[in-house]
Design goal:
alpha/beta; 5 helices
Length: about 130
């Protein structure tokens, strides 16, 4: 594992969500929600009133916050800001695309799965050279 950057570990970190109301509500009921002293939340409910700009800004904010370890984003929302999701390359916070009730999950659009496929195809090419 030489040459790899160690991932900083904290005693506690948050899970953030960018998703439809039903998905966010389920996670809030599970105890994932947080509001800090500045009244900043760790979730964004995407409905018909949410703009792409608001989704982009929230994604950038969650990706840069030190207290967030995982960002869960509905795949249909991730498709709205696909260029941001695909260009994100940090290990923490991890970006995970999840299905929603009204929009089926498509593994062909998942950025994590596409990176894994790329890594395995690169490894299979490299192992064939030996």
């Amino acid at each position: 594992m030489a040459g790899r950057t160690p991932i900083a570990a904290k005693s506690s970190a948050l899970i953030a969500m960018i998703a439809d109301e039903d998905s966010v509500t389920g996670f809030l009921l599970a105890g994932v929600g947080n509001v800090d002293l500045r009244r900043k939340t760790n979730y964004l409910i995407v409905d018909s009133k949410a703009t792409v700009k608001a989704i982009e800004d929230t994604f950038k904010e969650f990706a840069s916050r030190e207290d967030i370890a995982i960002v869960l984003i509905s795949q249909y929302v991730a498709n709205m800001i696909r260029f941001l999701v695909d260009s994100y390359n940090k290990p923490v916070p991890a970006i995970l695309e999840i299905p929603s009730k009204d929009h089926p999950y498509d593994p062909a659009h998942d950025s994590v799965l596409s990176r894994v496929k790329y890594l395995f195809s690169a490894e299979s090419v490299a192992s064939g050279r030996r």
